[in-house]
Amino acid sequence: MKNVTDSFVSPGHWPSAGSFGFNTDILATNPINLSVVIGVLIFFGKGVLSDLLDNRKLRIVNTIRNSEELRERAVEQLEKARARLRKVEMEADQFRANGYSEIERDKFNLINSTYKTLEQLENYKNETIHFEQQRAINQVRQRVFQQALQGALGTLNSCLSNELHLRTINANIGMFGAMKEITD
After folding, report:
1. Which one of 94, 104, 135, 183 has the lowest number of neighbouring Cβ atoms within 10 Å?
2. pTM above 0.90, yes or no
């Protein structure tokens, strides 16, 4: 290593200015070439590099600004959504409370209506039973009356002779005539 550093420092190793030739010592020429290339790159590339860095910086700043604006809009939308959610939850609670009370009211009304309907049906049933009983009683009365009448006619016909029959008819006609005179 000492040879490499000596070649940079030692003036005897450098060829004289009057001669031109190739230095084949790679270790001695590479650092010089590299320093020249880096110097040229820095001198000429400084503007390009600073432009590239400025453009990159502007894009990053714009991206950050856009991200901040998007974040602020997202926060606003989130707050609006939360407010809407609170409002909807309150309305849902009111609907639930109103719905439960309305359901209870409807249930109570339905039960009352059912009881009234059952009472009406019971009344109709009782009226129908009473009507049918009265009809049955009337039918029995008519049959009993018809049988009694037929029995009486049969007894009268068998007991009455023609002469007695004619006297009974005349007596009845006489009674009807007297009744007619009384009423007139």
Report:
1. 183
2. no
